[in-house]
Amino acid sequence: MTKSASYQLNSRSIAEATKEWMTKRGVTTPQIAELVMFLQKDYYPGLTPEECEAYVEAVLTKREVQNAILTGIQLDLLAEEGKLLSPLQEMIENDEGLYGCDEVLALSIVNVYGSIGFTNFGYVDKLKPGILKKLNDKHDAACHTFLDDIVGAIAAAASSRIAHRKQAEREGHIGPPLD
Ligand code: MG
After folding, report:
1. Nearest-CA neighbor of 122 among 150, 153, 99?
2. Ligand 1 (ion): which residues have CB within 5 A?
3. Per-residue pLDDT tens for 108-125?
4. How far apart are CA 37 and CA 40, in angstroms?
5. Where is the YutG/PgpA domain (predicted)?
6. Centroid of ligand 1 to alpha carbon of 145 (angstroms)
7. For residue 156, what are the contacts with CB-CB under 8 A and spacing of at least 6?
8. Which of 4, 42, 97, 103 is the most buried (most CB within 10 A)?
């Protein structure tokens, strides 16, 4: 296969494609922010939904995160269309418990703000609150084997970002904006 001669990428188009595909697959920023609120409300009583949304947006600006989202959604779509090679097709289509690459891909998102996101990632994966419950509905014809972990990972990464930022605030650093 030859590579496209018109190969051209820019950061903005990748960010836009990511947003567009998340929306097409039924996931919105407020829904992810709800997970962040669920994870962090007991630690930061003054935390608002708007603040959580801003943290989620900050996570979504990271290229590593966008890459993981686009890759995961693509694999979910190919599974829905029955276009993967067997036995990968069956494993992804049925969200096979021993497959595990969906979680591994999502960890590249959790890692963006360091390892403190791991606990939160495991926690929402176990409890599946809000949008995660919907994505895990097996009666649905859609396949979200990758997307559910990705959404949990974005919430976990945003939670880590909150922890880092609040620490900086306590120490009196003004810090950069939500990078
Ligand atoms: Mg999964």
Report:
1. 153
2. 102, 145, 148-149
3. 999 988 888 999 999 999
4. 5
5. 31-163
6. 4
7. 39, 109, 110, 117, 118, 120, 121, 124
8. 103
Domains and CATH numbers, the chain: 32-170 (1.10.3760.10)
Q: Is 82 left (phi over 0), alpha (psi -120 to 50) or beta?
A: left
Identify the pLDDT of residue 2: 61
Q: Is residue 9 very low, low, confident or very high in pLDDT (cuts 50, 70, 90)?
A: confident
Tell me, in angstroms, the distance from the centre of ligand 1 to residue 102's CA: 5
Question: pLDDT class for 35, splitting at 50, 70, 90?
Answer: very high
- Rg (the chain; Cα; Å): 17
